[in-house]
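Researcher: For the record, we're logging two predictions in this thread. I'll number them. Prediction 1 follows.
Model: Prediction 1, sequence and structure:
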Amino acid sequence: MATRKQALKAVDADGHNPSWEEDALGFLIAPVAREEFLASIYEQKELLNLRHEPDRYADLLTLDSLDQFIASADLREGMLDLSNKHNRITREAYLDEDGRVIQVAVTEEYLRGATIILPHLHSSMYNLGEFCRSLEEVFTCHVQTNIYLTPPSREEGKATQGFPPHYDNHDVFVMQIAGSKAWRIYGTPVTTPFRGETFEVATHQAGEPSQTFTMNAGDCIYMPRGLMHDAENSGDEPSLHITVGLITKTWADLLLESISELALTEPAFRRSLPAGYADRAFDREAAARYFDELINTISDKAQMDSAFDLLADNFIRARQPNISGVIAASRVAPTPDDRYCRRRYAPWNVAEDDDGKLVLIGPGGDLDFKQEEGDALERALSGTPFIAADLKCENPDELLQRLWAAGYLERVG
C-alpha cells in the first residue's frame, strides 16, 4: 500500500504560480505542465497535489460563505441534499410539501453527522461559475461543481462519511477548501464508464486500498472516471471540498451522430428490423449479413466533420451566457472612445443559414447578422481591443450593442 505525503509547490514549469483566472487547469495541476497532464494523466490515472496552501481556493468558496448561502438562499428540491453512510436520509426529512428545503432540518441532520451536498453551486456563485467556464474552455465539455460539507465526528471511533466506496462516471478534480479528509483509492474496476453507467455496490467490491492519503485545505486531486474511492472526515473540524466534474462527449457520441446523419441519406439504415426478430427461434443469418453490409457502408460513407461540427455547436449553444457588468455599466452612456474586447470564456462560431444570413452561434442561442456585417463581427470577436469605429459595417453601434447585451463583450481600459 502506498501512502502519499509529499508536498508540491504550486508553480508551473517556468516557476510561475498561476491564478485560476490566468490558467484554471494550471492552477489545479501545477507543477505538472498542461501538455504532460493531457498526454499522460488525463483519463488514465490520478494526480495528487498536496500543497500546504490553506487559502489557495478562498476566493472560490469558504466555509463562512457557504454557511451564509445555506442560511439565506431560497433553496428548492435538487439544490441541496443530505447523505449519511451510517443513517440513510430521505428528501422528505428536509423538504416541505412545496419542495422547499427546511434549513432547520438541514442543520439538525448535519449536527447528527450528515454530509451537506450542494449540486451545481457554480450556477449561484459568480466566481465558481467563471472557474467552470475557464475549464470548459480547456476541455470543451460541460463543467459542474458539487459541494460537500462533512461535519467532524462526535463519536469515539466513528468517522463521519457521506458515501461508501464507489467510482464516478465522469472525471473529477477535488479541491479541499477547509478541514481535512482521509481518502482511500481502490483501483479501477471499470475503465472510462459511460455517463449513464451507475456504480453498483453489489457488483464491485472495494477490497484493500492501493493508496491512502489525507487532503488538507489547499490540496487537490484529479481522479479519472471509474477509479474507486471513498473519503471520511479527518480531524476535529468540518471538511469542505469542491468536486469539479467534467461531463465530456465520447468517441461513441461522435460515431453515433455520424451514423445518424448517414441514415438521412442512406435508406438501408431506415428499414425496419425483420418481422419476428424477437422470437427465440428467429434465424439471424440473413440479419447478420445485412448488418455487415451496413457496417461496410459506414466505413465507406460516414463523415466525421459534419458530426464534429454539430457536437461543437451544440456544446457552444449550451453554455450559460455571461452578462455580468452589462446592467451596471448602463449607468454611464457609452462614448465613441470606449474600448471593448471579447469576454474571456465566451465561445462562439459563425455559420451561414439557408437564406444566406450569418448565424452567430454562442451561449444562450443564436444571433442573426447580415452577410455584409461578417468582417465587423470577426473584428469584434477576435479578442483584440477595438472601438466602435473599427467595426466596418452600416451600423456599428447596433452591432456592438447586440454583442454587448448578449455577454460577448466587456469594456477594457
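Researcher: Logged. Prediction 2.
Model: Prediction 2, sequence and structure:
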Amino acid sequence: MKKQYIILALMLVSCQFINAQFTLDGEFRPRTEYRNGFGNLITDGTDAGFGISTRVRLNTSYMTDNYWFYVSLQDVMVWGENRQILPYDQNNSFAVFQAWAELKLGENTSTRIGRQVLSYDDQRILGGLDWAQQGRNHDAALLKHVKGNFMLDFALAFNQDYSNPTGFQSVGTAYNTTGYFSYKTMQMLYMKQKWDKITGSLLLLNNGFQEYDVNNAADGVSNLQTLGTHLNYKEGKIGLAANAYLQTGKRQGKVDVKGAYLLGLDATYKVTSKLSLGLGVEAISGNDGGVGETGAFFPLYGTNHKFNGFMDYFYVGNHANSIGLVDFHVSANISLNKSSSLMVKALNFRGEQALASGEKSLGTEVDLVYKKKFKGYALVLGYSQMFASDGMYELKGIAKTAAAGTQNWAWAMLVIKPKFLTGK
C-alpha cells in the first residue's frame, strides 16, 4: 500500500514539473590572490598577502504561468579559516544570497518580493557586485513593467534588524545596522527606453539612513537622493556610453550634500573582429571642505570594482568623502582565439580637487585580464600594477620613502557553473 502512495506522490510531482519549469544549478568559484598593494599602498618590508577563497552557490528556480520562485544559497570559504574538526563555520559566511517570488499581475506587469539583486545599465549606481565573493543584494519589493522597448521598475524597502527581540513592538523601529551606506528605507524608480541606435535610462533613488542623537537614541532619518541618466549609442563599429548623475539631500551623519556629481563618457571602436579599442574619462566630485556639508559624490550600490582600476583604490569601502577623482583610461580587448581573450587597460588618476599640498596627480594603474574557456568551466587570470604619484602617497597617508617600490596584485580564478536539472 505504501508503494502505491509513493507512486501516486511521484506522479503528482511529475505533473507539477510538466506544467512548470524547474531548474537547479550551481557555481564553484575558487580564487587565489597575491596582494602587494591591493586597496592601499603597502609599506616597504611588509609581507604581501596571499590567500584562497571559494564561493559556492546552489540556485533553484521554479516557474509557473502565475509566479516565479527563486532561491540562491551561498557560502564563502577562506581556506584554513576553520580549525580542524570544528563543528560549525567560524566565519559564519553561509547565507541566503537571493530568495524571492515574482507574481504575475498582468500581461506586462509583475512584482518581485524578497531578497534580490538590483542591477541596471553598466552597474555604476546599482549592481550585483559579482566580483566580490559575497556579492550584493537588497531586501525589497519591486514592481516591474515591460512593454515593447520600454521598461519601468519601482522598488521599495524598509529595513529592520530586530536586534531587540521585541524592539519593533516596544521601542520603535530604530535600525542599528551601519556601514557601507546601509539604508533603513529605499525608494527607487528606473525607466529605460530603447530606440534604433540609442538606449536611454533614468534613475531616481532615495536612501534613508538612521540617525542618532548624542545619547545614541534614534533621531530620525537622513535622506540622500541620487538621480541621473545612462545613455548608450551604437552605430556600426562605434559605440558610445555616457553617465550623468547628481546627489543631493543628506548622507549619514546629517551631512548636507550639495553639488555632488558623477560624469562619464566612454567610446569603443571595433578595429577588427578580434580587436576592440576603448577610450574614456570619468569625473567624480570631491569634498569642498565646508563645515557640515560636502560636495563629494559616492556611487553607492554599484559594482565599483568594475570602475577606477581593479586594484580598488577608490570607492570600494574607501574614498567616501575625499578629493573626488578624475579617471582617464584607454583599453584594448583582444580575442586570441575562439576560447580565449585578453583585456589590457591603463588608467591615469587625478584628484577632482587638490590635496593640502596643492597636488592633484595620483598615479597610473595598468590592468591585465586573461580568460580561457574550457569544456564546462573557465579560467580567469589577472595582474594589476599601480605606479603611484606623490599625490597618492599623500592621499593614503604613507610617506613615499616608507612605501614599497612595487605595488601590485595578481589573481587566478576558476569558474564552474554546473546545471544539475533543467526544466522544459
